[in-house]
Amino acid sequence: MVTFCSDVDGTLIYYVSRLMELPERVPLQCKNQFMTKESHRLLQEVRQKVEFLPVTARNVEKYIEVAEDLGNPTFALVCNGAVLLKNGVPDTDWLQESKALAEKSEEDFDRVIAFCKKQPSVKKITWEQGIRILITTSNTRKLREKLLASLELETVDLWIAGKVLEIVPKSLTKGAAVRRWREQFAPKFLIAAGNGEIDLTMADHAEVLLVPDILASKVHSSNVKVVQGVFSDGVLREVLDIAKSRENEGGI
Questions:
Q1: Which residues are bridge partners to 125 per DSSP?
Q2: Could you tell me if 190 and 175 are in contact, meaning their C-beta atoms sit under 8 angstroms apart?
């Protein structure tokens, strides 16, 4: 069976800021979000051919908002994979392992929080389930640069997600989550996809990683394929092509 590990925001669904760019759309139940008409159709076909596993930075509550629109997959990796959901319920063992891994980053977490509390641009600091810090700020890029210049952070990565700066343990990236998934469930062939730099961490643990052309200059692995055009449409077509190819070869 082919497993398709996919980022959600910007990879399968979009926000209203892209309405003019992508006019052929299907509104989602969650306000201000949509899928392209073609992606909505293709995802239904993909789910019949492969095992679909969302891998998203969204927390549990935010993921549940779009779960039905994604077809209610049995499993989902949320909080960048620190939390494994089965039918919408966190897997206790997986979460405890994630928290144990995050403990190694407590000193860096404390230093980041102390620094950010002194920054006028920081509007909100959220410590989420003891596994990551979300910092809402008026300028994520500038705050990231200041943190990297001011602190020697050895155990965490800093990822920009819109107006939020995510402070994530190096041991709890999406790539680490996919590795843990492979170790536990042993998929035969794994396709990953994502539109952000944090998604590149999945490359080492997938047979194929699909990314948009905006990340082409950051690709340094031979198993990464750049998808042109509307990203969600292209990703789902690639997944179907790979699944069909493996089926014809008897590899499913």
A1: 135
A2: no
The backbone torsions φ and ψ at residue 177, rounded to the nearest 5 degrees and listed phi first, read: -65, -40
Q: Which of the four pLDDT bands, split at 50, 70 and 90, describes residue 252? A: low
CA dihedral of residues 157, 13, 136, 209 (deg, nearest 10): 10
Tokens for 172, please give them.
């709890």
Beta-bridge mates of residue 150: none
Whole-angstrom distance, CA of residue 17 vs CA of residue 67: 21
Mind listing the pLDDT tens digit for each residue in 76-96?
A: 999 999 999 999 999 999 999
| Listed residue (226, 229, 208) closest to 218, CA to CA | 226
Sign of the CA dihedral with 73 first, then 191, 242, and 185 last: negative
Q: Give, as one character, the DSSP assignment of residue 147.
A: H
Residue 182: what are its φ and ψ, rounded to 5°?
Answer: -60, -40
Phi and psi for 120 in degrees, rounded to 5?
Answer: -60, -25
Using one digit for the tens of pLDDT, what is the confidence trace for 61-72? 999 999 999 999
Instruction: Count CB neighbours of 95 within 10 A.
Output: 18
Q: What is the pTM of this model?
A: 0.91
